[in-house]
Amino acid sequence: MNFVKELEWRGMIHNIMPGTEELFTRETVTAYVGIDPTADSLHIGHLVSIMMLKHLQVCGHRPIVVLGGATGMVGDPSGKSNERNLLDEETLMHNEACIRKQVSRFLDFSDSVNNSALLLNNYHWTKDYSFLGFVRDIGKHITVNYMMAKDSVKKRLSGDTGAGMSFTEFSYQLLQGFDFLHLFREYGCKLQMGGSDQWGNITTGTELIRRICQSEAFALTCPLITKADGGKFGKTEDGNVWLDPERTSPYKFYQFWLNISDEDAEKYIRIFTLLQQQEIEELTAAHRNEPHLRLLQKKLAEQITCMVHSTEEYNTAVAASEILFGKGTADQLASLDEKTLLAVFEGVPVFEMAKSDFENGIVLMQLLTENAPVFPSKGELRRSIQGNGLSINKQKYTDVNGIIHVDSLISGKFIVVQKGKKDYYLIVAK
Fold it and tell me: What are the chain's domains?
C-alpha cells in the first residue's frame, strides 16, 4: 500500500516536500508527529495526526509519537495570538502518562511487529542541554532572517494586539527543529508530519538536518480540519470533545459524530476511519440516495467510538441513544451507568426527592402531581394513563391507583418519567 497515495484520496495532504513520495519507494520510513501535552487528554483535533501515524504503520512503516515535555514548557506560537501558559514538570509528566495510554489504542507498540511504534518525550534529550551549548551547537546553523520569514512569526509580529512575541516563543521552531535532528540521528527518522500550521516549524528541522548532517529529511502536513458551517472542528457548547471518557463520556462522543452534517460526514469518514475507498464510495452513494437514514454518520460514529473507547462502550451509546427516540427498552435503561444516564437526559426537567419517601411506597398520583409535578392535576394524569400515554422507566404504566416503591429506582437513585412520545422527566432520589 502506497502511504502517500492513501493520504491523498483521503484528503489528508496539504503540503508535501518534493521527494517525499519517492522516499517511500526506497525504504521503510520512520516518521513522527509531535504533540504538546498541555492537558491530560487528547481531543479529537489531535486525531488527524494520530490517524496519519496509524495509516503509516498499516502501510508497513514506523511511527513515532513525540510528546513535547520540553517544547510544552515553551509554547508554540503557530496559529495563536497570545502566549500560552507554561506548565510545570509534574503536570507535564502526568499528562504524558495519560496520553500514552490513549495513543496505545491506535498504534501497535508491541515488540512482535517489525515496525513497532515508539512514544518519546523530548524533555529527556533537552533537559540537560545548557543554553550556551544549544545556541552554539544548534542556534548558529539557522539565521534570524530564516526564522523571521516563517508565517507563524510574521503573523504574530504584525498582529493588531501589539503583544508581539517573547524570545521564549520565538525559539520554539529551533527546539522543534532540534527534535527532528535528534530523531534523525538516533532513530533514522526522515519525515515529520503535522497540521498545516506546523509547516514552518517542520521545515526548520529539515534545514537543520541538511546543514548539520548534510542529509535529506522531509515534511508532510495535513489540512486543518474545519466544519462546513464555519464552526471550529471538535468544539461543542461544552468545549472540546476529549478522548478521555471522564472528560467526554462515550455517549456524548458518539453523539458528536452522529450529529455532524452530511457534508462533514463525507469528509470525516475518510479521515477518521480505516475503511477502504470502495466501501466509503459505496456508503456515500447510498447515503446520498437516502440521507434521512444518516448512514455515513452512523458508520463514522461506530468506527471512531469503537477505536477510541471500545465496542462495548459503542453498544452502550447506541442503546442509550435509542432510549430517547422511543426504541429503547426497560432493560437497556436499567443497564446504563449513572454517568451515561445523566448524559442521555441532560437538559430534561429534574425533580429531587428524599430516598426515604419511597421506602414505604408512594402513590403515583401524589408523586407526579405534588412531589414531582410532571402533571398539573390528577385529572390530567389519569387521562394520560387511560390513553396509554405514561411510561415509568420505559414501561407503559396503566394502574391509576399504582404505588411506586424503592425497588423502582434505577441504580437505587433514578426514575425516568415519559409523558407522551417526547417529554421526559427525571426524578432523583437522594
Answer: 3-222 (3.40.50.620), 235-344 (1.10.240.10), 350-429 (3.10.290.10)
Which listed residue (94, 101, 232, 327) is catalytic?
232
pTM score, whole prediction? 0.84
Sign of CA dihedral 4, 230, 79, 73: negative
E strands along 82-128, which residues? 118-121
Look up 101 and say whether it is catalytic. Answer: no
Q: Which tens digit of pLDDT belongs to each residue from 333-348?
A: 998 989 899 989 988 9
| Catalytic-labelled residue, pool 46, 62, 150, 309 | 46
Single out the catalytic residue among 20, 176, 221, 248: 176
With contact defined as beta carbons under 8 Å apart, do 393 and 410 qualify?
yes
Based on the residue annotation, tell me whether 298 is a catalytic residue of this protein. no
Query: Which residue is catalytic, options 91, 102, 168, 236?
Result: 236
Residue 85 has pLDDT above 70, yes or no: no
Catalytic residue list contains 176 = yes
Distance CA(43)–CA(26), nearest Å, equals: 35
Convert the pLDDT of each residue in 50-76 to its tens digit: 999 999 999 999 999 999 888 766 655
